[in-house]
Amino acid sequence: MNRKIISASAVLAGTVIGVGLFSLPYIASKVGILLMALYFVAIGGVSLLIHLFFGEISLKAPDFKRLPGFAKIYLGAKAEKISMFSVIFGLSGAILAYLIVGGEFMSDLLSPYFGQSQLFYTLVYFIIGSALVYFGIKAIAKIEFWAIVLFIFALGAMFFKAGQQEIMHIGNLLPEFNLKDVFLPYGAVLFSFWGISVIPEMEEMLGRDKTQLKKGILAGMLASIIISFLFVFLILGITGPSTSPSALPGLKDFFKGWTIVLALLFGLAATFTSFVTLGLTLKKVFWYDLGIKEKASWLLSCFPPLVLFFLGMKNFIGVISFVGGVMIGIDGIMVMLIYQRIKKGKSRLVTYPLIFLLFSGIVYEIIYFLK
Questions:
Q1: For position 186, which CATH number holds?
Q2: Of residues 95 and 201, more confidently modeled
Q3: Number of domains the chain is built from
Q4: CB 24 within 8 A of CB 36
Q5: Model pLDDT for residues 257-311, shown as the tens digit of each residue
Q6: What percent of the chain has pLDDT over 90?
Q7: Domain range spanning residue 334?
Q8: DSSP 8-state code for residue 290
Q9: Alpha helices in the chain (DSSP H)
Q10: Quick one: which of 71, 20, 44, 43 has its CA closest to 278?
Q11: Rounded to whole angstroms, how far apart are CA atoms 91 and 101?
Q12: Which of 41, 61, 47, 39 is nearest to 16 (CA)?
């Protein structure tokens, strides 16, 4: 595998391994590692197929287009509007999730030294992040690669420490199972394995080696799924029923000193870089695609998630699940319909079952959200 493919795979893995990862141990604490492994295989496989299909679409469609642009080319103006809706609200929901968890990580990391409330650190996190979105500092995205390196290092350190302290227990991996939670992992797992927005960038990175895009997608997705499962296995094995909704804060009762600091540093770096990257992406959607002025686009990309936060939408698992099941579900259906159009209906045996699965997930998440 050449350097370009490795770089493209790393970009995809860095995009996929984001805030959704931190929701998975808590959900696994409700359903157990065996059902979670089944979801990883099933939803991971579905997500991999959709990413491969989107890669093929990206190769055949004009350059410098994204999902709404592809929808307009192959499915028409109405499909473009639906896709634009899901992209805007999906990105806004994801930014809200990063705000919820990023503020928590910053508070856990700094409040022992400087005091102040979690709300204070959430506002600091937002002010710094939204300022970078305003000035359009794109270099922050390059830090994502090093955030992944830090994550792997932190994961290894926690495995080592857990073995030293003998704090991992098999019983923690198999909690009491409640049938009502059987579909709980769906939206969060789909959210956690989603990164199609970066595939056109991967294509551009490969240059003349664009035919290797599928290899890059396959490597990046498999690495993300394996690393995510190891993370869930480690956190759940240590914290068990006391696993916190965002995973890392619950480790404070088991790790002290540099180990927990390293874990929180990774969490803060991963969420912060992605908050800025997604903020810039959403700002460009308003600015370039919808023709809204730059400053107004910045306001629309950054402040609605903050307003939702102050209105009480602070349920991290709920936000992740809804965005994953509904908004990403719509994106996935759109990819299937475009792929079907490109293949002139020859892929229906694959696309129809996937569309049915994604549509069922949308219905489930909406009903669950409205309860």
A1: 1.20.1740.10
A2: 95
A3: 1
A4: yes
A5: 777 888 888 888 878 877 887 888 888 888 877 889 999 999 999 999 999 999 9
A6: 39
A7: 3-370
A8: S
A9: 3-16, 24-31, 33-60, 67-75, 77-114, 118-135, 143-165, 185-192, 199-206, 213-239, 258-284, 294-310, 316-322, 328-342, 348-370
A10: 20
A11: 15
A12: 47
